[in-house]
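Morning F.,

Quick status update on the modeling queue. The single chain you submitted on Monday has been processed. Sequence for confirmation:
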Amino acid sequence: MKELETVTSESDKQAASVDETYQLALLSMESFHTYSRELLDKGRPSDITRAACQLHDRATELLYNDVTAVKYHPPQVTFTPGDVTQIKRLDLIGKVTVTTGKPLGAFWRFH
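Structure tokens below.
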């Protein structure tokens, strides 16, 4: 049970980390969209022209931060019951086998 709890805990941490990465990416995109929309709706033409390079650079940065490369693959956990015909003192119940999923992708940092 302790081994299973350890695997579950580590898997939960990895899933939370990937979720946080996705949430940060979403927040960055929403922030950019809100700023762009506000500039378009309330800004003067000169404000828009002045911000054009900055907007373009930020849009490009957001496009190249590929969060789809960040994936979560939970481990495959298998329980094999002990062989009652060959019970050993330390293997009365059985064995837990953990096969890890694919490695997590690169993590990107967002502003």
